[in-house]
TrEMBL record:
This is SIMPL domain-containing protein. It comes from Stutzerimonas zhaodongensis. InterPro entries: 26kDa_periplasmic_antigen, SIMPL/DUF541, UCP029033. Signal peptide: none annotated. PANTHER family: SLR1258 PROTEIN. It comes from the Bacteria.
């Protein structure tokens, strides 16, 4: 009779372990240690927020065989761009004008013998503003500049729109971590209840890395979308009583 009881206990422990393994697959429970009666859980928190700052670079370029005419054309283009931004309601404090650049392609050490247009010039005007919606609206209304003959430039990846930033990240951080902590504790409490135990004190905590993502499903922050998604996965270890 004694031998039967001894064999039954390991069988029950194995059955309980298998059942827990299956349950924990779909839960946030990361680790459960029977020896010191602790449970480790992961808390997930996500928030959709809006950018609070935008930087828009309006690049333009000209090319020709006469240095003076290229420079003059760039100067006129720059004036038109600045005037356009003023019409959109941006102040001088929100507008940054960069110096014009004109390059003599024949002056380069390994320049080819025949060049269609000798001088290649470019200029940039930047908008830096906390009025994110105003920047986005202006970026969608550049047709008058194109109609005026201004050749707007694009970045190397073909993107020419505003770059949206989240400068108030630190103000949002505490609330996000609070959500992750609450989520983890709920999971730990549920596990303790199912295990017939009581949730004890918090033993260790790792807040994890808060990631800022585009809200279009991207797994990174490219700066192209005014909407952002904040995500954090924090790890907590609780004692069980």
């Amino acid at each position: 009779m004694t031998t039967a009881r001894i064999g039954l206990l390991p069988a029950l422990l194995i059955a309980a372990a298998v059942a827990f393994a299956g349950w924990s697959v779909g839960q946030g429970v990361e680790r459960f240690r029977m020896a010191d009666r602790t449970v480790t859980v992961k808390g997930l928190a996500e928030r959709d927020v809006s950018s609070d700052f935008a930087v828009w670079t309006l690049g333009f370029r000209r090319a020709g065989n006469d240095f003076a005419s290229v420079q003059q054309g760039l100067s006129e283009d720059r004036s038109r761009v600045v005037a356009f931004l003023h019409e959109q309601g941006f102040s001088d404090d929100e507008i940054e004008v960069r110096p014009l650049q004109v390059q003599d392609l024949l002056a380069r050490e390994w320049a080819p013998q025949e060049i269609a247009l000798r001088f290649n010039g470019s200029g940039q005007v930047l908008v830096k503003s906390a009025r994110v919606e105003a920047v986005g609206k202006a970026a969608n209304g550049v047709d008058p500049l194109i109609q005026a003959g201004i050749q707007l430039d694009t970045e190397q990846n073909g993107f020419s729109g505003p770059r949206y930033q989240l400068r108030g990240f630190n103000d949002l951080k505490p609330g996000l971590l609070e959500d992750a902590t609450r989520n983890a504790r709920e999971q730990a409490a549920k596990f303790a209840e199912d295990a017939g135990a009581q949730l004890g004190e918090l033993k260790t905590a790792n807040q994890g890395v808060i990631r800022v993502l585009d809200d279009d499903g991207s797994d990174m922050d490219t700066g192209r979308t005014p909407g952002k998604r904040l995500r954090v996965v924090s790890t907590f270890e609780y004692a069980l009583q």
